[in-house]
Design goal:
This protein is an alpha+beta fold and 791 residues long. It has 18 helices and 27 strands.
Amino acid sequence: MRIKFPKITFYRGIAFRYSIFFLVAITIILFIPLVVGYGTSSVLIMLQAKNDAATKTNQTVTRIENVLQPTELVPQTLVRAMENPNISNTDVIRIAREFILQDPYVFGTCLAFEPYQGEPGSYWYASYAYEKNGHLQSKILGSKSYDYFKMEWYRLPKITGKPAWTEPYYDKGGGDTLMCTYSAPVFRNLNGIRKFVGVLTMDVSLAGFAKIVSEVKVSDTGYGILISKQGKIIVSPIANLADKNILDVARQGKGVETMWAIRDMLKGNEGFSNMDGLEAKKRPSFLSYAPVPSTGWSFGIIFPEDELYDDMYSFIKVMSWIFGISITILLITTVLITRRMTRPIVRLVEATHKIGHGEFDTKLPVRKSKDEVAQLTRAFAEMRDELRSYIINLEETTTAKEKIESELKVAHTIQMDMLPRGFLTPDNWDLYAILNPAKAVGGDLYDFFYLDPDHLCIAVGDVAGKGVPAALFMMVTRTLLRAKALAGIPINMVMESINRELCQDNPNQMFVTFFAAVVDLKNGTMEFCNAGHNFPLVVDGGVTVKRLKERHGFPLGVQERGRYNAGFYTFSDREVLVLTTDGITDALNTREEFFSEIRLQETLLRMAGKSAREITTGLSDEIEKFSEGADQADDITILALQYQVITDIKRDVMNYEMLKLKNQLTELDRIALKIEEISEQWNIPPKVSMELNLVIEELFTNVVFYAWDDLSEHEILLELTMTDPDAVQVRLTDDGKPFNLLEMKVDDVFDKPLEERKIGGLGIHFVREMMSEVLYQRSDNKNIVILTRKF
């Protein structure tokens, strides 16, 4: 075949390429000062912006704290005074109303009582005063349509016995506005017992916070945002974000940096981070944030990155134009000079094209000088003569190689024919195996044979190496296995005997990783020995894939006096034992990605419930599909053995419900509806139902916020079981980071002053206090929390 050489164009010539080389060198020299100046300016601008933003953030947090602290102090003082029997409810209401008139941010106050505690004969009684149009108005709250006993501002202090801030909410029927409420529990001594009788609240309208936040200005379009400790947006200049959760907003088309910054902000930390803004259109921005200590809220300032660097970018554009024109003039000058210097090389190229077409008698141009071009010409003449000799030798070598390949094909046929083919097993057992060598012959092996009608011996091995030596070592190992196993000795002693034989007369120091087992076909038990081989995989009916993580000694052929132990396993109904070699997990695709252990387990899990043949061939097809045509790097061996119990045993469950949830806060509504449904069906008392709802909500929220670092969707499994007529069990499972709530230390949040309390820990305290039993376990890389509530 005649080779066609491409014509050398101007852009492919040495002259042009050398010109580009010199041009790049000069460009780098001139460009370095520009880059250094740009980098230094960027750093200084960023430091100044960071300091300014941090100062404005802390100033705004201080202003918010100045609003919140008096709001907390007044009700705390009044509820302590109410424990004195000489202080009447009227006095308390009067003082609270005076505080509303004096404080421009406090919208309303309410003194709400337990049934029949506020007004004789009244089930509901809540005296509410609020400011409207500059005047103080009053009303009595409490009815079936406004059942304040179920509202967060009443429930939280009642359950905890401590003051608390609520999440932002719209108080329909009360203040009829968006607000946050600070509630303090009221206690009185009744018959010598200190008893909870109601709550005293202070309502802060979100309009007051909006005014404070709107006054924050950074750059042209920067803005402030105030969020609650659960991520609910309290104040934002972006209208469509009001009352949304900031984590849900961050998940909608925003980057990883945005999610990390928001999560760090919700943890109560102070910092400065990159993000993508919160507007509908993604825009690189910066976020400066700090916590509001009194409430656990967080305040942040967001400002766009492009506005920060506008002036610097304009200067860079002008300098770039000047730089580009100068480089173009330099390029033209350099090309003209180098073309004149490279003309002799063009003539040499024409002659070498003819040699490349097989015209070995072509004469090369003669140069009388002793420069580099003349030396190159002489070198091409020597190459022409050597190439002629090489082609003759290549023809002879090709003939010999074809003969060797023919012999290897015969060896491959012999090796495959020696592997067992008859997959005959009892009706409740299913067996299948395949071996795909990477070369004509390989070093993997599988084997199975009956020791007697009730016992089957199975084995899989992988010899270190490939080709003919590995294949021969494999056949020796297989022969020794059959000879030793049929003697009836335990499997670990069989392995020790094979190991001693292989270690003798082994000058190449070859070895084989080996797994062998004897299966009792009657009772479904297996005695096995793993000599440095991959862990076997067990696939159950469709829920999990587990590994038998036992190794009982070195690979065979490594240590002559090595000792081997044995392991035991009992098959469950429809379980499949899958034995493989590392050619599966080490399989590569065209992007040089490994098939990996995780992808192997996921593939087997999808095939759960299929026959041994379908699992084996399906896994082989999956590897071939994954490889995308890439060459097979190692031998691939798969053996699958499936067991099925002849008589199925069914188990009854008294009451059971399961929910598969996504890691999104919107799933809390589904949880609440399901608890309400089972409470009615299982006759669960209302108090127990409420506590279950609170505890599950707390645990589910923690999992959503902290279990994963990525933005992917994950599944959370919630199981509810009525184990006894007077006990309910809750089981929450996720595949997030390990977190044992039993090991978490809860600070003494009740005895410390408000400003010294740490954010977090109170929810875990509620879980432990409300549940009868709390258990945690980490299994199959999953967190499992088991709660029991007796009643």
